[in-house]
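Memo to structure team: turn this sequence into structure tokens by end of day. - J.P.
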Amino acid sequence: MSTLALTVILAFVLDKLFAEPKRFHPLVGFGNYVSRIESWLNQGESRTLKGVLAVIIAILPWLLISVVLTALIAESSLLNVIVSAVVLYLAVGWQSLLQHAQQIVGPLKTGNLEQARTYVSWIVSRDTDTLDDTQVAKAATESVLENGADAIFAAVFCFCLMGIPGVVLYRCSNTLDAMWGYKNERFLSFGWAAARLDDVLNYIPARLTALSYALMGNTKQALDCWQRKGHIGKSPNAGPVMASGAGALNVSLGGAASYHNRIEQKPVLGPEEDENTRASADSITHACDLVNKTLVMWIVVIMVMSWGISVACS
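Reply from structure team:
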């Protein structure tokens, strides 16, 4: 087995065993660090330029550290695998995503809508106080599909392409987008650079994820939904992922959603809603299953491609 494949597998074994660290997670520290940067720079004039500077200050030190770390472990294959696996493990959110999603399933099935709303509010940015059971299931299913791309597959792609520096760059950029990428008065100009960098880094991984969802589900319908509806949404990357995922699962997603007490009409992703395609607790479970099957496929592909490259180079 190649070093790359072994590293990826070990990272997900660590995630399966330990899930997200409850204390001292590096991303929590990074979040505190960039919050101070934002408080310092996000004021006065020229906020777009200050946002560019903020992104550089936020990411560059950690990127340089990752480059130095890569050089230090390069001579030892064992150390390279272990350290790289730990870094990738800290950058992905596989078990955390599944656990948060499955928390919503139980209350939905037992009719505890208030608890389901509370749990879904932990993983979505929309207003959840007035959601009915279908809307809760829809929000959770969308979150699983989109975060599968962001929190798992994009991180793996960047790691395979650029090693530790690649996954550090991606995870820092994605975190900045989550914190600064809002289209409101505070962040519209300042967060522009963070949002655009995340769009660029996610462009190819999002489409690979959309293709993977299609291959692991209802392929024909997923590809059709991706082609017809993947470009309609505001996000250039979330649209293809969720449209393909909705088609793969045969579930209707999108539609009206409330953000900060303002209704936004999102495009319908997937098939039109009827009694057979309406989102439910089962849709959330099926979305988790789709993410798991896609992860297995990615690991197999990485193993095969790594073997093929090693044979070609030998």
